[in-house]
Amino acid sequence: MRYKKAIPNMLTLGNLYCGFLSIGFAAYGQFNNAAILILIGMMLDSMDGRLARMLGADSNLGKELDSLADIVTFGVAPSFLIYYTYFHKFELLGLAIAGLFPLFGAYRLARFNVTPTKSSLQYFVGVPITAAGGILALLTLFGEIIPQIFTTVVFTGLCFLMVSRIRIPSLKEVPLPKYGTIVTLFLGSLLYVIYRGTYEQFPYLIYIATPIYIAYLAYLFIKTSKK
């Protein structure tokens, strides 16, 4: 029975590791790889919670671990990515501005953790940090064709939307991954390959993560169809 609790936690730790690797790639100037690792983290994040519920392995440990992973992969990693690609021009001021993103994200996660479970299944209060970090990763991925001012405005908007009281429908009970994850998978990886026309710098991890994720979606679809 212990292995059931270990499986979702391993996916969560994989999400956390993707965030760490993303920061490392960004520091070395490999911004596309850094962005894609955040997107892979989104794929893992969409799987761990569902697997925990499917296996009956929900636990407080898993919930806290998920929050710690999210703040790194979708808070700290995107802020470093934005700093190295856009805000580095402003030196220390740019670093300070980029650092606001994980601050707002941490507050958003803490508020989510104290929200009653029943209401959190129906709607999110504020934009989830997962979606916000994924949007920044996508903007960076297509940074060559997206004006920097647009990215700056979106960055600022997401900071405030995460801590806002806007109610966003939750799809946790729908037999599909979290909203934005499908967009992440196709726009973030397939369109990137089409646009760049090259595979040389595409991290090999995506070749492993994508088939596994597609198989996971197929499993959910088949299971739901039988009900």
Automatic annotation (TrEMBL):
<dbReference type="GO" id="GO:0008654">
    <property type="term" value="P:phospholipid biosynthetic process"/>
</dbReference>
<keyword id="KW-1133">Transmembrane helix</keyword>
<keyword id="KW-0472">Membrane</keyword>
<feature type="transmembrane region" description="Helical">
    <location>
        <begin position="92"/>
        <end position="109"/>
    </location>
</feature>
<protein>
    <recommendedName>
        <fullName>CDP-diacylglycerol--serine O-phosphatidyltransferase</fullName>
        <ecNumber>2.7.8.8</ecNumber>
    </recommendedName>
</protein>
<keyword id="KW-0812">Transmembrane</keyword>
<dbReference type="InterPro" id="IPR043130">
    <property type="entry name" value="CDP-OH_PTrfase_TM_dom"/>
</dbReference>
<feature type="transmembrane region" description="Helical">
    <location>
        <begin position="121"/>
        <end position="139"/>
    </location>
</feature>
<dbReference type="InterPro" id="IPR050324">
    <property type="entry name" value="CDP-alcohol_PTase-I"/>
</dbReference>
<feature type="transmembrane region" description="Helical">
    <location>
        <begin position="20"/>
        <end position="44"/>
    </location>
</feature>
<dbReference type="Pfam" id="PF01066">
    <property type="entry name" value="CDP-OH_P_transf"/>
</dbReference>
<dbReference type="InterPro" id="IPR048254">
    <property type="entry name" value="CDP_ALCOHOL_P_TRANSF_CS"/>
</dbReference>
<dbReference type="GO" id="GO:0016020">
    <property type="term" value="C:membrane"/>
</dbReference>
<keyword id="KW-1208">Phospholipid metabolism</keyword>
<dbReference type="GO" id="GO:0003882">
    <property type="term" value="F:CDP-diacylglycerol-serine O-phosphatidyltransferase activity"/>
</dbReference>
<keyword id="KW-0594">Phospholipid biosynthesis</keyword>
<feature type="transmembrane region" description="Helical">
    <location>
        <begin position="201"/>
        <end position="222"/>
    </location>
</feature>
<keyword id="KW-0443">Lipid metabolism</keyword>
<keyword id="KW-0808">Transferase</keyword>
<feature type="transmembrane region" description="Helical">
    <location>
        <begin position="145"/>
        <end position="164"/>
    </location>
</feature>
<comment type="similarity">
    <text>Belongs to the CDP-alcohol phosphatidyltransferase class-I family.</text>
</comment>
<dbReference type="GO" id="GO:0012505">
    <property type="term" value="C:endomembrane system"/>
</dbReference>
<keyword id="KW-0444">Lipid biosynthesis</keyword>
<dbReference type="InterPro" id="IPR000462">
    <property type="entry name" value="CDP-OH_P_trans"/>
</dbReference>
<dbReference type="InterPro" id="IPR004533">
    <property type="entry name" value="CDP-diaglyc--ser_O-PTrfase"/>
</dbReference>
<feature type="transmembrane region" description="Helical">
    <location>
        <begin position="176"/>
        <end position="195"/>
    </location>
</feature>
